[in-house]
């Protein structure tokens, strides 16, 4: 487990791809205005690879850790 | 009569706006999907109907409640669409607006929550927006009623000069050409209006599931023949990119910067604690503990006791005296005093507890906490194959299983929704509370809260275990859709809370007047009639005979009283009826009297076994009906009845048989 939530407040990430994310999730992320190249801020990360809160365009969204990793090119 | 359709993203204050505009009100919630079905209202002193539709992110639905919107547009013809947007998040709100503008019906876009936008230091030039989008733009703030009067007047003015030209975006050449070809064929061969045909083609390219079903159903060959080509060319993605680029250009052109900003981020401050990675869960537990304390300890129960004292005391004896004085026959007097006042009254006394609980749930919905609750519980729910969103229906299920099951519509995956629906009846709803209260007062006077809590927890544990079983049976995948939008916090407004509470609670009062009333009369009849006609002793009545007949089945779980068995049967009508049936069957008018009587028939162990049985045995009629309508199959409803009865019997059997070895 990474205890990365301590360095939250200014971590910006760029969305590098939607590969490996299921169709419904992709569609919803698109509807929320997220696309390739969007910059999101990591607001919070829950322990044990729990959900992640990201912020983009003045809105906060909770997504699964795995989805976040795929969006930002983690794996 | 003019019809205005209210459409918009979730969390844009759409329902609040609807309530402010119309005479009647709908349920409002700061939790996605609170508007589970379309609601109808009329603007005050006018001939304008307003339809409130569930909040959607796009016209291509993912969840069940989202399909309502697309179905509405396909089959209805509103005169005007009022597109409610969150002014602060215009970029993604306009994605939906474009789909509506392409539809061709005149649109007015309300930039709601305009205060939030101003506070963020930005503003938009409305003329630029209006010009680019081709529709009217209005600024509103539904919560502070800002801009509503003008909006209302505009909607009422039937001849309002709204621009009618549907928006035509500059899609890539290939797409434009395909749109033109297909829509021309639809107009020529099927007689569709031009605007509608064009919209239909774009939605079809966009893989809109509802529109594709519609095309298949109406055999729209110009679309169906091209489906593979559209998908192979990935038109969907090009359409999305074109729209987003158009929005970004429009917003860039219209954006203005305000000079002074006094930006205090209340939401961020609250969220430091509420969504804290480690403290989030304890805070969640604390909030719900507080909610139950308020309902069942601090406020609800004292009020309920007062009401009971009045109903079983002055009202009951007063009615009896009055009926005697006007010379009513004893049978009628018995029906009214022992039947109706005891039975219906015995249920009405729980109104305070139930309303306090519903008020708490409404506050959590309106403030924006529910979305956070889904987030902090997600990791745990993942363990049983569900996601955090399933937690909300289950929590709402504590109030009433029917509303809980209906709230499950916001869950994206069909399998997860089915699992949530199937385990919802195990959440101990407020209707079951009366009978718990009665038995804990009789048998566990010193540990009332603890015993009730243990029943609630048993329900939760069984629900979670069953969810795990279903997860394996239905082969639910690990990575499921879970996207939850966290709205800004709002200070809950009293009238919104009251409306929400009333909307949830009125069903209970209505039930008291209908099904509980009918059930009580039925029980009274069965206990006063026998094979030989009117009986003087209840021991010879139909209900006694019925109860005695199946008594051997219930002996192994410690229930020997035929009155209790007969009461259990009536509980299938509605769980509240169990208490009122017992009142009638034991011939008593007050809780205190009943408590004294049941002491002779039960031991603490068999009482607990009975409570466990009542928790699980069979969902009430309303719940069975809802399971059938939500799953679209009578089989799941039947399955729910049978499986819950087996679980109930097995658990109370184990508890009673093991308990009896030690006690």
UniProtKB/TrEMBL annotation, chain B:
Family matches, as Pfam families: FeoB_C (PF07664), FeoB_N (PF02421), Gate (PF07670)
Keyword Metal-binding among UniProt keywords: yes
Main localization category: membrane
Protein residues bound to GTP: 8-15, 33-37, 52-55, 112-115
GO CC entries: plasma membrane
Segments passing through the bilayer: 273-292, 312-332, 339-364, 384-406, 418-443, 449-467, 512-529, 549-572, 584-602, 608-627, 636-662
Annotated positions binding Mg(2+) 1: 22
Superkingdom, taxonomy of origin: Bacteria
InterPro entries: Fe2_transport_prot-B (IPR003373), Fe2_transport_prot_B_C (IPR011640), FeoB_GTPase (IPR050860), G_FEOB_dom (IPR030389), Gate_dom (IPR011642), GTP-bd (IPR006073), P-loop_NTPase (IPR027417)
PANTHER family, alphabetized: FE(2+) TRANSPORTER FEOB, FERROUS IRON TRANSPORT PROTEIN B
NCBIfam families to which the protein is assigned, alphabetical: feoB (TIGR00437)
Family label: Belongs to the TRAFAC class TrmE-Era-EngA-EngB-Septin-like GTPase superfamily. FeoB GTPase (TC 9.A.8) family.
Protein name from the UniProt record: Ferrous iron transport protein B
């Amino acid at each position: 487990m990474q205890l990365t939530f301590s360095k939250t407040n200014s971590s910006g990430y760029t969305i590098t791809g939607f590969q490996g994310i299921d169709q419904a999730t992709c569609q919803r992320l698109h509807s929320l205005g997220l696309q390739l190249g969007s910059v999101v801020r990591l607001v919070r990360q829950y322990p044990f690879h729990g959900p992640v809160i990201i912020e983009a365009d003045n809105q906060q969204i909770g997504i699964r850790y795995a989805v976040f990793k795929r969006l930002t090119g983690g794996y | 009569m003019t019809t205005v359709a209210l459409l918009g993203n979730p969390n844009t204050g759409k329902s609040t706006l609807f309530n402010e505009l119309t005479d009647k009100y709908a349920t409002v919630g700061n939790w996605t999907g609170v508007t589970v079905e379309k609601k109808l209202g009329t603007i005050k002193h006018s001939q304008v109907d307003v339809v409130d539709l569930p909040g959607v992110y796009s016209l291509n639905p993912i969840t069940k409640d989202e399909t309502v919107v697309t179905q509405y547009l396909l089959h209805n013809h509103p005169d005007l669409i009022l597109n409610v947007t969150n002014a602060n998040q215009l970029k993604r709100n306009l994605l939906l607006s474009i789909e509506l503008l392409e539809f061709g019906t005149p649109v007015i876009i309300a930039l709601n929550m305009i205060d939030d936008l101003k506070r963020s230091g930005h503003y938009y030039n409305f003329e630029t927006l209006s010009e680019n989008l081709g529709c009217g733009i209005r600024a509103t703030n539904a919560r502070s009623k800002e801009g509503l009067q003008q909006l209302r007047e505009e909607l009422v003015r039937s001849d309002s000069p709204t621009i009618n030209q549907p928006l035509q975006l500059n899609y890539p050449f290939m797409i434009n050409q395909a749109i033109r070809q297909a829509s021309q064929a639809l107009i020529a061969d099927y007689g569709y209006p031009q605007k509608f045909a064009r919209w239909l083609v774009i939605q079809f390219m966009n893989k809109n599931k509802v529109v594709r079903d519609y095309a298949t159903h109406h055999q729209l060959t110009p679309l169906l023949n091209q489906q593979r080509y559209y998908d192979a060319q990935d038109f969907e993605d090009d359409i999305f990119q074109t729209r987003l680029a158009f929005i970004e250009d429009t917003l860039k052109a219209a954006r203005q910067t305000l000079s002074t900003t006094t930006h205090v981020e209340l939401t961020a401050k609250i969220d430091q604690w509420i969504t804290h990675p480690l403290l989030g869960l304890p805070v969640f537990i604390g909030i719900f503990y507080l909610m139950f304390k308020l309902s069942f300890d601090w406020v609800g129960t004292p009020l309920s006791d007062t009401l009971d004292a009045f109903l079983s005391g002055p009202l009951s004896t007063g009615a009896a005296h009055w009926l005697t004085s006007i010379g009513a026959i004893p049978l009628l007097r018995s029906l009214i005093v022992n039947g109706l006042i005891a039975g219906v009254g015995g249920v009405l006394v729980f109104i305070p507890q139930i309303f306090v609980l519903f008020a708490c749930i409404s506050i959590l919905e309106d403030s924006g906490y529910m979305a956070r609750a889904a987030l902090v519980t997600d990791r745990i729910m993942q363990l049983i194959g569900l996601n955090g969103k399933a937690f909300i229906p289950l929590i709402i299920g504590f109030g009433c299983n029917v509303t809980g099951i209906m709230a499950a519509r916001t869950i994206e995956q069909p399998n997860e929704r089915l699992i949530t629906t199937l385990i919802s009846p195990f959440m101990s709803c407020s209707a079951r509370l009366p009978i718990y209260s009665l038995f804990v007062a009789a048998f566990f006077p010193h540990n009332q809260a603890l015993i009730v809590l243990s029943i609630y927890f048993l329900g939760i544990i069984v629900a979670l275990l069953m969810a795990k079983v279903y997860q394996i049976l239905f082969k639910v995948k690990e990575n499921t859709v879970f996207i939850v939008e966290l709205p800004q916090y709002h200070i809950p407004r009293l009238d919104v809370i009251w409306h929400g509470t009333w909307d949830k609670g009125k069903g209970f009062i209505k039930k008291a007047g209908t099904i509980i009333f009918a059930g009580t009369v039925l029980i009274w009849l069965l206990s006063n009639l026998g094979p030989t006609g009117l009986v003087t002793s209840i021991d010879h009545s139909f209900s006694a005979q019925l109860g005695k007949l199946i008594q051997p089945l219930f002996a192994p779980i410690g229930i020997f009283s035929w009155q209790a068995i007969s009461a259990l049967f009536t509980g299938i009508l509605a769980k509240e009826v169990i208490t009122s049936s017992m009142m009638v069957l034991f011939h008593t008018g007050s809780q205190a009297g009943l408590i004294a009587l049941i002491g002779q028939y039960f031991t603490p162990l068999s009482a607990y076994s009975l409570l466990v049985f009542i928790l699980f045995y069979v969902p009430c009629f309303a719940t069975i009906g809802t399971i059938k309508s939500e799953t679209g199959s009578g089989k799941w409803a039947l399955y729910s009845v049978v499986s819950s009865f087996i679980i109930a019997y097995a658990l109370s059997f184990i508890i009673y048989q093991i308990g009896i070895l030690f006690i």
